[in-house]
Write a structure and sequence with these properties.
The protein is mainly beta. It contains one helix and eight strands, in the order αββββββββ.
Amino acid sequence: MKRSILFVSSLLFLSFLNACGPKGNHDGKIDTQDVNISATADGVAPKGMEPVMTFDSELHDFGKITQGERVKFAFKFKNTGKSELIISDAKGSCGCTVPEIPKKPVAPGAEDYIGVEFNSEGKHGLNEKTVTIISNANPHTKVITIKAEVLQPSTK
């Protein structure tokens, strides 16, 4: 009985340590082999006709924020390809980083946003987090990054 409790406790502790660690492989990116998504909603697009997700910027620096603060940023992108862009998923590298994706396809030439919220509760110092976006674009995955310097709240 004691061994079972110790074993379960050890597993829970290890899960807790990895809760904000990278998902997928060791570099925090999702492997494209784990994603089975066609090039377009209708199937494989002819070469040169695929959707392409082009961001204004793939990095946002929140600068200095106070621990416990929740900050948000909207990454603007454009479908510079020649067929509809469908975003199927987005994953933060940590539970403290939550993405929000468009629900509808993005037409060729149209612009939209990927929202990212960072919760600095329990964080300190320089923090850099990623969001991996999975879509039918070429390439199928795209990584955007946020960073912030989290300062301890002042005590007066």
